[in-house]
Amino acid sequence: MGMTLLEKARRRYGVGARGVIHIGGHLGQEAARYRAEGIDDQLWIEPQPEAFEAMRAAVGDSPRVRCANVACGSTRGVAQLRQIDARGGGMSSLLEPGDEARARFGAEVSRLIEVPVVPLDELLEELSVDRARFNGVVIDVQGFELEVIRGAAGHIAAHVDVLVSEVSRRPLYEGSCLESDLDAELEPLGFARVYTRLKPYEHGDAIYLRRSRIGPLMNLRLRTIGPRVRRTG
Q1: Per-residue DSSP letter, 188
Q2: How far apart are CA 75 and CA 23, in angstroms?
Q3: Tens digit of each residue's pLDDT (9 = 90 or more) over 13-53
Q4: Alpha-carbon torsion (207, 20, 80, 102), positive or negative
Q5: What is the DSSP letter of 193?
Q6: Residues 100 and 201 sit within 8 Å (Cβ to Cβ)
Q7: Would you give the distance in Å from CA 14 to the centre of its chain?
Q8: Partners of 111 in the beta sheet?
Q9: pTM listed for this prediction
Q10: Which residues share a beta bridge with 198?
Q11: Torsion angle of alpha carbons 8, 150, 183, 156, nearest 10°?
Q12: Please, which residues have CB within 8 angstroms of residue 99's CB and are 6 or more apart in sequence?
């Protein structure tokens, strides 16, 4: 069982997550790994109804684990979730697949599902969540990351120490954000990207840490060299 990027943040940079909010939970594949890493407080968010039921079954029934069947964004409303059939799966999005996603992965929309959208800051208030317990956030929303962050800015700025997000250097979806957009959005909230893991098609995951939790040597590296980048495949 490989470690998650939250665990990598703890081991490499000394910034760990006490609890995690996983936005775009899909089937809850990481739940067991979070528990193995000592992250018992978990909030899972997934808008697709069938995936939500599978996710809820996978993460288990515990007073410290909660699930919400909504999408997160910058404003409250209703949106069309595109269920996308693609090689490898896991590409359903609130955004339309772009030319590269269609060409590289055979991504095609098989159906539209109307889903509620709730900003994370509002959702946490409605669920009466103890925000201080959730200093880790994982975002896996297929190009919609910027909208999620804008709706979660209050929680991120006040309580989060480590944030893991999917990132792209080339858009896979129409109107999707890029890694540089996330850097610019998170910097005023007090965060810096310290690590990016990229696949050959310039899509992957990144670790962002609260700057006040980063040591002087890492801050020097970020200013002079930039974030560490690892390419896989």
Answers
A1: G
A2: 15
A3: 999 999 999 999 999 999 999 999 999 999 999 999 999 99
A4: positive
A5: E
A6: yes
A7: 20
A8: 83
A9: 0.96
A10: 204, 231
A11: -40
A12: none
